[in-house]
Amino acid sequence: MVVKAALVFVVVAVLLTYYCHEPVPQDIPQPTLFASFGIVMRTVRHMARIGEYLGIGTEPQNLRYILGALISAGVKLRTGISYREGLECTDTTFDGVRVRVYEPVSARQSSGRVPGLVFIHGGGWVMLSVDAFDELTAHVSKELGIVVVSVKYRLAPEHVFPAAFDDSVAATKFFLQNAEKYNVDSARIGISGDSAGGNLAAAVTLALAKEKGLPKLKTQALLYPALQAIDFQTPSYIDHGHLNTLTKDLMVAYWIWYLNNDQSFREVFKANNHTSDQLKKSQYAGYVDHKMVRPNLRPKIVKTVNKESIKFPEIPNIATILDPRFAPLMADDADLKGLPPTYVMTCEYDVLRDDGVMYATRLRNAGVRVEHDHNERSFHGFLPQFSDNELAGTAMEKYLTYLRKNL
């Protein structure tokens, strides 16, 4: 009996050791925090998949539910922290889109109009919510004394592209057109977002730059944004796609849920077989030239082709990957000219690092004033940990400094 108990103990210990072993880059500060974040993300994904296999919701639905429950539990544990103090927070709608508005009491009482910021949350267009970013958006509003509008866009895959984009455009336009209601200067409104929210913020900026009779966005601040879906073999995807903070497999799944909700093509996308030889030699391949990340590489030789003439494999809605509303890095050079000053935050250990580097490079080449804030030894999704993670706290200060100077 003792031998059996000892054997069971050893087996359980070995399994726990195996499961809790998390790849951690050697130079990561606070490695336990990084490993914990990775283990949580891996566990949540496994639970979501098992739930779908057992007929309990779909994987994205389960991801939402499990992460939502974990975030709610975390908020309850921090009940002693009144991060909303000094703010009026209102859930309302802007042109039919649900939003949360953060108004500092000082802004309401100000004799002059204050700046504003539209913030679009991340989560792969599939999960998370304004609640998950409540502390971050409240912090930005309080620290800068500005009105922040956090957008509750419709989520994929129940609402595929362009639902999230349309909601983000509608809410932003409404705020620009009704700024005075919140004592906001319509000429001093910026837009920001992280990850998938950074994708939406960049897409909205591109779209509204062409709108006439509308106040112009003062700046865009993109936090480790997802910007392209034609190349999943960039150096950052290759080097960091195994990290559970955001794996290559999950990022590809996010793109597909947003595009057409057909996960049968996941391996096709991961191998870059969702495009064609023609596309890989076109100007669009040049928009993700690895030379922008690794200058020692030879530049790609590309030729300009008409978008409508490009042939794709038989994948539903696949041509959408060249639509700048879906993937802002696919915007032509002419459309980048005249965009507002831009802040791009990237993280070293992030599959999306190169998306941000490439966009910053292309914007700068188009004459846009760009501040590229690259955070070494940091990882995807770290900014909301600004209260607990030293690097995230420093990154938050740099983000706030940029907004303070450019709004």
Automatic annotation (TrEMBL):
Pfam families in alphabetical order: Abhydrolase_3
SUPFAM superfamilies (alphabetical): alpha/beta-Hydrolases
Entry's Gene Ontology cellular component terms: membrane
Signal peptide (residue range): 1-21
Span of domain Alpha/beta hydrolase fold-3: 117-267, 320-383
Residue positions of the active site: 195, 350, 380
GO molecular function, one term: carboxylic ester hydrolase activity
Keyword annotations of the record: Hydrolase, Signal
PANTHER family: AB HYDROLASE SUPERFAMILY PROTEIN C4A8.06C, ALPHA_BETA HYDROLASE FOLD-3 DOMAIN-CONTAINING PROTEIN-RELATED
Family: Belongs to the 'GDXG' lipolytic enzyme family.
Protein name: AADAC protein
Organism: Branchiostoma lanceolatum (Common lancelet)
Lineage: Eukaryota, Metazoa, Chordata, Cephalochordata, Leptocardii
